[in-house]
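User: Batch of two.

Assistant: Item 1 of 2:
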Amino acid sequence: MLLEIITPDKKLFEGEVSSVIVPGKNGKFQMLNRHAPVISALKKGKIKIKTSQGVQQFDVNGGVVEMQKNKIIVLAE
């Protein structure tokens, strides 16, 4: 699935991932391939992504995540 992590300053990440864990307002949750469509607010925490090259983490101070049709967009602060 395709992931984009965008901040007001720049695009932090764009590429294929196998899983994404985000700090949702009501707790962490994971999105995998063919996940149901979702929109959620994010709280301060870490976004953890798994790619073919390994695991990466990004710190965020909040934001919004949307997943639809195997594409995830994170608008992060």
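Item 2 of 2:
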Amino acid sequence: MKSNVLGVLAGIATGALLGVLFAPDKGSNTRKKIKNKTLEAKDTLKNEFDHFLDTVSSKYESLVKEGKEMAKDGKEALKKEKEQVKNTVKSKI
């Protein structure tokens, strides 16, 4: 996903840059357009990266919660098994 986003952004930036460079316009206007497109690309990349970090963080938190629940369930199951073994041993004695 990350490489796709970066590829699309690079393609957009390259296309915009070439379009601006080959357009018949004054140099100062061309530089302003390049600056604006660069700032737009930077903002887009930052937003995509923030979204990526939010997604990873959310998945991490979900996995930690699931792991804690599994550990709790495992402890409870172990406690039940231990009690059953203890009761079985008592009944044999």
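The mean pLDDT is 86.
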